[in-house]
Amino acid sequence: MNLALFDLDHTLIPIDSDYEWGQFLARIGAVDRAAFERRNAAFFAQYQAGTLDPVEYLEFALGTLAQFPRRQLDDWHAQFMAEVIRPAIRPAALDLLKRHQDAGDLSAIITATNRFVTAPIAEALGVPHLIAAEPEILADGSISGKLIGIPTSGAGKVSHTRDWLAGMGKTLDSFERSHFYSDSQNDIPLLSAVTDPVATNPNALLEAHAKALGWPILKLFND
């Protein structure tokens, strides 16, 4: 068995699920559209530039979720999946996942986006394991707005991956080959920790880094 890890946003899907969730909430009138879109766009620009404070962003995102009853959030998320996510799922990404699954690889999505937004997406993609930012869930199922543990971004992806594997009695060295697919320079720490890093739909900074180190470059969404 080998290991196959996948970033989500702009890697397996050609959009940013967290950003699009915020745009969806604004579009349906759940939040003040002008104010929310302005804040959401600013965070997204910081992420693209590699200057995002992940804790600050997650407190914003999870604080938004905390404003609504869980049943309402779940109903909205089902609508979000139908209108935004499922139309964005491409055959090329499903084929990539299937190749690893058919090979018997232990497969997981590891994303900086929170579990509420991403768990249904991982299920739709058929990926059995998800490592994501963990919102605190209260006894009634509602989201408190607090983050549990450290963000799953940057070097945090490495520590979260190691913790996840340790829970199964494994390490990265347990696998002859460990793959990680990502689009962003923010994921260079985990890309550097696996045997088979793949710059997937890479942004300019990651593409330059990958070329300098001879990493393979995969572009799934050229259609």
Please provide a written account of the structure.
The protein has 223 residues and is α/β, with parallel strands linked by helices. 49% of the residues lie in helices and 18% in strands. The chain has helices at 17-27, 33-49, 54-65, 70-88, 91-102, 115-125, 155-166, 188-193, 204-213; strands at 3-6, 106-114, 129-137, 143-148, 178-182, 196-200, 217-218. Strand 3 (129-137) and strand 4 (143-148) form a beta hairpin. The mean pLDDT is 95.
Which terms summarize this structure?
alpha/beta; 7 strands; 223 residues; 9 helices; globular
Kindly summarize this structure in a few lines.
The protein is α/β, with parallel strands linked by helices.
Uncertain segments are: none
Task: Give me the strand/helix succession.
Answer: EHHHHHEHEEHEHEHE
Give me the Rg, rounded.
17 Å
For the sheet with most strands, the description reads: 7 strands, mixed
Shape: globular
- Number of helical stretches of at least 4 residues: 9
SS class:
alpha/beta
Strand content: 15-25%
Residue-averaged pLDDT, rounded? 95
Task: Give the tally of β-strands.
Answer: 7
List the helices and strands and how they pair.
Layout lengths: L2 E4 L10 H11 L5 H17 L4 H12 L4 H19 L2 H12 L3 E9 H11 L3 E9 L5 E6 L6 H12 L11 E5 L5 H6 L2 E5 L3 H10 L3 E2 L5
Parallel strand pairs: 1-2, 1-5, 2-3, 5-6, 6-7
Antiparallel strand pairs: 3-4
